[in-house]
Write a structure and sequence with these properties.
about 400 residues; 9-stranded mixed beta sheet; 9 strands; about 40% helix
């Protein structure tokens, strides 16, 4: 076969799906036990980029793309049999390595966000699985969704790239999945009400991190700021109709288990309320970030950056087709989920490498990436005669 010429597309994609790294991991994890007809590098590329084979993501479509890339016919059993526990581990390792590199190259924060090392958002999203997987992935809604996995993600809102990913049972609650450690120091974590757990907030603060979330309606915190010290927050609201509120208060919380679970604890927090005239009421936020880091007028707008994680899940589902899992096999489903995540991360990496200074909305770039995904695959891994034609198409 003629030697392929270098191209920016191939160089960029191979920085994520490096052939030598894939072969090394395949040997280390036992994905490839004997050298046979299947090319593991092309196979991984097809799992990652084969979502664009047609109107629906299908294993048969991926097999046809693999055959086109390699120029070799492959029996269905030889293709499907490669979706194993070891392949899942390989894809997960690749994903973690790409996430680590993207974090190092993440865009610099500006303006109000620039006071933090990073601004992160955490959330989980349910993925419907075949009902035969209900034992391994029980759903939180067993009557509506027989089996479901929860994809829990922490993303960097600058660049909308994942910082951590966990695939767990759909019945798990978000607050039990999120684990914070020293990585949270100096960073701001945006969360919804599902994470309103005192012990989690205290741990974030103790580790030198910052949190920002909406206040529960049922929380009537005791204000500690003068001249309202000792009053409940609700008593201040009539005084601030049409104005913002920014006071220190005590957030009560309890341990959920153990001998001291009934003991009341309090945590000092900052409560900020923005007045919304159209709604005729305040929206309240809780944070431990001082006013020197987040000014009163910036709290609400910064919290809206949490919407980036919703757009992250939307892109995974609509563009990278993470919910299209045409199988009842656990390892096939998990491989396709990690393949979709790698596809999204690869999209981010290509954007960084090919258009570093371009101002292009992530949604628009995602559509461009999806339209040319198979061409990109052929340029990186296809036979020379195919990749030359695809390079012309991508030019």
């Amino acid at each position: 076969m003629p030697k392929k010429t270098n191209s920016p597309i191939r160089e960029a994609i191979e920085s994520v799906l490096a052939p030598d790294r894939i072969r090394a991991l395949a040997g280390e994890l036992g994905v490839v036990k004997r050298q046979r007809k299947l090319d593991i590098v092309v196979f991984v590329g097809v799992v990652v980029l084969g979502f664009a084979t047609g109107a629906q993501r299908s294993l048969a479509g991926m097999r046809r793309v693999y055959e086109r890339c390699t120029g070799q016919m492959l029996a269905p059993s030889g293709f499907y049999g490669r979706f194993s526990r070891e392949l899942v581990q390989l894809l997960k390792r690749l994903m973690e390595e790409v996430m680590a590199e993207l974090q190092q190259r993440s865009p610099k924060l500006k303006y109000a966000l620039g006071r933090f090392e990073q601004v992160l958002a955490a959330d989980g999203s349910l993925i419907k699985l075949h009902k035969n997987l209900a034992k391994r992935y029980p759903s939180v809604f067993p009557n509506k969704m027989g089996a479901g996995a929860k994809l829990h993600v922490v993303i960097n809102v600058a660049g909308r790239s994942a910082r951590s990913v966990q695939l767990v049972s759909g019945s798990r609650h978000d607050v039990t999945i999120l684990k914070v450690d020293r990585w949270i120091a100096g960073k701001l974590l945006l969360m919804d009400l599902a994470y309103r757990k005192g012990l989690l907030l205290k741990r974030i603060a103790d580790l030198g991190g910052y949190f920002l979330l909406r206040k529960k309606q049922s929380d009537d915190l005791i204000v500690t700021a003068e001249p309202w010290c000792g009053k409940p927050l609700s008593a201040l609201v009539p005084e601030f109709i049409g104005k913002s509120i920014d006071v220190m208060a005590e957030l009560p919380w309890h341990l959920e288990r153990g001998p001291h679970k009934h003991r009341r604890h309090v945590m000092p927090v900052r409560v900020v309320g923005h007045w919304y005239a159209q709604e005729g009421q305040h929206r309240f936020y809780i944070t431990n970030a001082p006013a020197e880091l987040i000014a009163t007028e910036h709290v609400g707008p910064i919290y809206t950056a949490r919407w980036e994680i919703e757009l992250f899940f939307r892109e995974l589902k609509l563009t990278h087709r993470i919910e299209q899992l045409p199988t009842s096999k656990q390892f096939v489903s998990e491989s396709l989920i990690y393949g979709a995540l790698l596809s999204l991360l690869l999209s981010r990496k290509l954007h960084q490498r090919l258009l570093p200074n371009a101002v292009l909305a992530p949604e628009r770039w995602a559509r461009i990436f999806a339209n040319f995904a198979i061409d990109i695959l052929n340029v990186a891994f296809g036979a020379a005669r195919h990749s030359k034609l695809d390079q012309l198409r991508l030019a």
